[in-house]
Amino acid sequence: METTGSGGASIHGGARAGFWRRFAAAFIDGLVVGIASGILKAILGNGPGTGLGIVISAVYFTAFIGAERGQTLGQMTLGIRVLGLDNGASIGYARALVRWLVSIVSAIVILLGYLWMLWDGEKQCWHDKLVGDVVVPTSAYPVESWPN
């Protein structure tokens, strides 16, 4: 059975966000989280600031991607979103947290987990594969309304 996204288009084999859009969105998100972490380090010191920065990163990505919109601020800017491959809807907060944790592994292994999307049929990185999501353009899978 074909699963459809909120826009009614089939999620299996449908439109996917390309590498450079995902890269640019991740860069913007990195700036947002990095600035917050830098401020915390300046105020609290390196140890506590770094620890709280990691917590902020986890909350940021989990809250935004797990929400019904499935978009971080960077993804909103670049017109992409995360949807479950199983149902074409939000992946929810638990899967979003696991996705964030595995994205760290994707980065640690010389970014191989991120580059994986370049030759994967569904353009999935390791963290996408593990939680069963895809990153899609909002033009093909529009966000219904704000806020959701």
Describe this structure in words.
The chain is mainly alpha-helical. It has one domain. It is 54% helix and 7% strand. It is built from 6 helices and 2 strands, in the order H-H-H-E-H-H-H-E. It has helices at 19-44, 46-66, 73-78, 92-108, 112-115, 126-131; strands spanning 80-84, 133-137. It has a two-stranded antiparallel ribbon. Helix 1 (19-44) runs antiparallel to helix 2 and helix 2 (46-66) packs across helix 4. The longest helix is centred in the N-terminal third of the chain and has 26 residues, at 19-44.
The oligomeric state of the chains shown is: single chain
* Beta strands, count: 2
Q: Could you give a short account of the major beta sheet?
A: 2 strands, antiparallel
Order of adjacent strands in the largest pleated sheet: 1-2
Give the H and E element order.
Answer: HHHEHHHE
Give the overall form. globular
Number of separate structural domains: 1
Tell me the β content. 5-15%
Low-confidence stretches: none
Could you provide a short overview of the structure?
This protein is mainly α. It has helices spanning 19-44, 46-66, 73-78, 92-108, 112-115, 126-131; strands spanning 80-84, 133-137.
